[in-house]
Amino acid sequence: MLRLVYICIVALPFILFYFGKAAYIEKHSENYDEYDRYKLARRMLYLMKRIGFIHTDVYGTENLPDSGGYIMYANHQGKYDTVGIMDAHHNPCTVLIDEKTSREPLVNDFINLVKGSRLDKTNMESQLKTILNIIKEVKDGRRYIIFPEGGYTNNHNHVQDFLPGSFKCATKSRCPIVPVALIDSYKPFAINSLRKVRTQVHFLEPLLYDDYKDLNTQEIALLVKDLITNTIDQYIPQKV
């Protein structure tokens, strides 16, 4: 949390400028496409990393599909997770985020900028609408980040069980599933220090629809979890 406070204080002039520009884009959205929005979003993320002494090593970008929509399913460690993935992902993508979390200061404006989807966990009808909208958008070529653990509580580099229902967005849109392994992603905002930190983002080989079409969502969840866990084990033999 110390690092987040430090970033907000030091970067305040930039925050005012970038979020002012984001508000302008939102007001004149007809003049800005998804690439314009994402370019601004990644500038903001780069600034956060630089001021916060955060470095992210990226692996496997060659595994990302060249075209069409797909969903990245990643393990969840903390507030930096989306930052690390988007900073490493050059083409526009967005994220599915909890409704309550999405309304936090600055987060709300950022989600608006990247046109993210908000999931209201207290309203089943709203959840269904959100899922159906994601399915349609992915079919239309959008790329999403989903955290199938549903949350994080001191997960660190330990992967929790994945919620099978989160994979319905992929099975219904018949899109590629890109497993994403995050390592040490909790450190930037969980460690009460300003010392330099390094995180890792691993884009794993995608599962095409033909690879998982005969599996149910429970089996897909276990498969993706195993792929991510094996990658973490490979780079961190002794999890902390």
Summarize the structure.
Helices cover 46% and strands 15% of the residues. It has 240 residues and is of the alpha/beta class.
Kindly describe this structure:
A seven-stranded mixed sheet has the order 1-7-6-2-5-3-4, sandwiched between helices. It is built from eleven helices and seven strands. Helix content is 46%, strand content 15%. It is of the alpha/beta class. Helix 2 runs antiparallel to helix 3.
- The chain-level structural class is alpha/beta
Average pLDDT works out at 94
The profile of the biggest β sheet is: 7 strands, mixed
- Strand tally is 7
Task: Please compute the radius of gyration using only Cα atoms.
Answer: 17 Å
Distance between the termini: 19 Å
Q: So what's the overall shape? A: globular
Question: What is the helix fraction of residues, given as a range?
Answer: 40-55%
Number of helical elements: 11
Residue windows where pLDDT falls under 50 for at least 5 positions: none
Strand coverage percent? 15-25%
* Spatial strand arrangement across the major sheet: 1-7-6-2-5-3-4
Order of helices and strands: HHHEEHEHHEHEHEHEHH
What's the helix and strand layout?
Blueprint: H1 2-10, H2 12-27, H3 34-51, E1 54-59, E2 70-74, H4 81-88, E3 94-98, H5 99-102, H6 107-113, E4 117-119, H7 124-139, E5 143-146, H8 168-173, E6 177-183, H9 187-190, E7 197-203, H10 209-212, H11 217-235
Parallel strand pairs: 1-7, 2-5, 2-6, 3-4, 3-5
Antiparallel strand pairs: 6-7
Which features would summarize this protein structure in a list?
single chain, 15% strand
